[in-house]
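Suppose you are handed only two things: the residues of a chain and a line of SMILES describing S-adenosylmethionine. What would the bound structure be? This form records exactly that question and the answer produced for it, so the two can be stored side by side and reused later without any lookup.

QUESTION INPUTS
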Amino acid sequence: MPIRSFEDFREAVFAYRLPRIILTALDLDLFTVVGSRSWTIAELSKEVDASPRGIDILCRNLAAAGLLRKRNGVYRNSRLAADALNANSPHYRGAYLQLLREQWNDWSQLTACVKRGKPVARQDPDDPAYRRRFTWAMHHRSTAIAPKVAAQVNLRDARTLLDLGGGPGTYALAFLARNPRLHATVCDRAPALGVARKIAASHRAGDRLSYLPLDFMREPVPGRYDVIWYSNVLHIYSPEENQALFRRLLPALAPGGRLLVQDAFLLDREGIYPVEASLFAVTMLLFTERGNTYSIAETSRWLREAGYVRVRRVRMKKGAEDWEGGLLEASRPAARRKTSAAPGNQEEIQPAG
Ligand SMILES: C[S@@+](CC[C@H](N)C(=O)[O-])C[C@H]1O[C@@H](n2cnc3c(N)ncnc32)[C@H](O)[C@@H]1O
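ANSWER OUTPUT
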């Protein structure tokens, strides 16, 4: 990117080769089979029940990509493959790998999807089994990045946080781990919260997490919080749905409280870059009715129009963010002191706006 010559074009189109090679390795559960020992091609092909010719060519490419190591003709796992791609590792990201594998076929439906402007095969978001699988996938996606993001968000003065659409609660738990006086509530569909409970049960801060089963697009959001964390949900909904939600969330924030929106924002004036944010909009086209990715400017405008103040982008360290430039902060106006005409000159604290 950008594609200028025909050679660039050819390379861009052929970029599907490596993803397909990696997905085939996942189909064969190759990294689990390789485990912690070294293998000849003859041994490995026997073990995974595939042809020696196929495994030879596959492994050579996985080694060229850095996922396997080859020395003296035998193969072993790279550190990443042994850790995240191996089902016998405690850090296995299997649910997310499964999601990536399934998406290959869905992406092949893109032409039909572009024509219709609707997802081709839509999953019911309320189907419990699907919701549980997806929630584990979200945990495996964010488990390493959430603590890095949490380290850069100042929650020193916050006592209560609502993780809205928090799914597995991975972010809520990362915030709790860094802020010992914080209490968090994760709000999502009930089956997602079942996964969150399991994850929290073995987390050192898990006893400071509460659960709020709710469809927040249909039902009012109860309670009042110092911070609302709205991460990776904006892109599921239309501009109108997000705008209406922003308005409805104001009363759920304490005066001066903050709404933090994390998403794949488009950062340039024309709404094209970063490339990853535009690519992610395709995922939304494939899997949601009205989702998209949005520019930081339009999202900021929606927040201001909904009554928020001090709307600003939070600068994050490169390599330690969920999405490049992907965090926006907005505040509910703080309480304003109003001098009453009543005797004694009592003061009344009222939320402004
Ligand atoms: C892409 S996941 C993001 C999970 C988490 N916030 C993160 O950043 O990793 C979106 C989550 O929002 C939840 N969600 C979306 N719409 C919802 C609604 N109307 N009510 C409750 N939960 C919703 C989904 O169930 C899912 O768990």
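WHAT STANDS OUT: Residues 340-353 have pLDDT under 50 and may be disordered. The first helix runs from residue 6 to 14.
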